[in-house]
Amino acid sequence: MQAQRGTERGGCTLKISLYTAPVLEPISRAELLTHLRLDSGTFDSNLTLTQSLAYGSHAVQDNYTVHVGTGISVIGKQADVIVHHGTNGATGTVDTRIEESDQLATGYTAWTGGAFIQVTTANDNADYKKQYTGTKQYIRTASKVLLAACEFGTSILVNSAVTAEDDDLTDLITDGRVAVENICRRALLSQTWDYYLDAWPAEDFTKLPFGNLQSAGLAVSWKDTDGTETTLTLTTDYLIEANGEGIGKIVLPYGGTWPTGSLYPSNPIKIRFTAGWTTAALVPKNIKRAVRFAAEDAYYHGNRHEVLQPAIMNLLSSYRLHDEF
To answer: At what angle do helices 166-184 and 29-36 cross, to 10 degrees?
Structure first.
């Protein structure tokens, strides 16, 4: 856990600490490599084609649990999933979907947007591909075959372009994201923070920083003068107003009041919350461009700062949060 007290965002000083850093970045290393026009490998060496489900005749199975491919690690990389179709048996149909998981062998679920077009005898003997833009480390295919055996197989094409500076570029992406977050005063991708108050608000609400408040996992607790910590109950003691991409709030229910006990002298009230877009695909394209420019600025050690900084500020002008805390 990284802790940051007195974190500054756009001139504001917040009593806040980072509890869980984001595990995703808004751009991939491959995207930054393309942006910087860096690539030490050849076109062929940068691409890795891995079989997920072996090609062959697959029998009728009215489920997605038998014709399942092997999981492939794709996190931080660009990946296309390809279904190679041969001939379907008479009236046979094949439905294929992309499944994702944080573990290689277990925990796979269907990825939203990962369903391929159904293949029938009218559109067999063709290849179909779909780009994976999800957030999990591993992906695989799962297929359902109906009415007759069908010939097909699946593979996953990964762009893993590398340079001798890969580790540095990974750090620069993080630096670029943080720079953009500081300008916008918002969290770009899911990250959990502990926000501390010295007293209960005078109003029936309190605002939470960084925008894109996620309702899941939010917790409010307070300590009395003896250091005994009490956790408030959602819907009974407070409500959550996520407010989309804007500033979220914790609000008292109708007729509700904040606790009245005497507060601990140091950071007595803690609000743990998660903010940010849940996937890189949801981050607006202008913010992603700004992250690329900020990473480029750091890569060239500020030599292009006078050119890049106005572009960054222009891209982010409509995404800044202006609420004070």
So the answer is: 90
Query: For residues 177 and 32, what is the distance between their CA atoms, to the nearest angstrom?
Result: 12
Note whether residue 301 is domain-resident: no
Residue 282: DSSP 8-state: G
Is the separation of the CB atoms in 57 and 87 below 8 Å? no
In angstroms, what CA-CA distances link 25 with 12, 21, 172, 292?
A: 24, 11, 11, 11
- 80 CB contacts (<8 Å, ≥6 apart)? 129, 130, 131, 132, 156, 157
321 inside domain: no
Residue 105 sits in which domain range?
43-159
CB 315, CB 293: distance < 8 Å: yes
Burial group, residue 235, by CB count within 10 angstroms (0-12, 13-18, 19+): exposed
Whether residue 324 lies inside any domain: the answer is: no
* 87 shares its domain with 123: yes
CB 28 within 8 A of CB 46: no
Q: How far apart are the two ends of the chain, measured CA to CA in Å?
A: 24
**How confident is the model over 256-281, as pLDDT tens digits?**
999 999 999 999 999 999 999 999 98
Task: List, for residues 277-290, the tens digit of each pLDDT value.
Answer: 999 989 999 999 99
Whole-model pTM: value is 0.66
Q: Report residue 137 CA to chain centroid gap.
A: 11
Across the chain, how many H-helices and E-strands are there? 5, 19
**Cβ contacts of 158 within 8 Å, gap of 6 or more:** 47, 48, 49, 50, 72, 74, 77, 78, 79
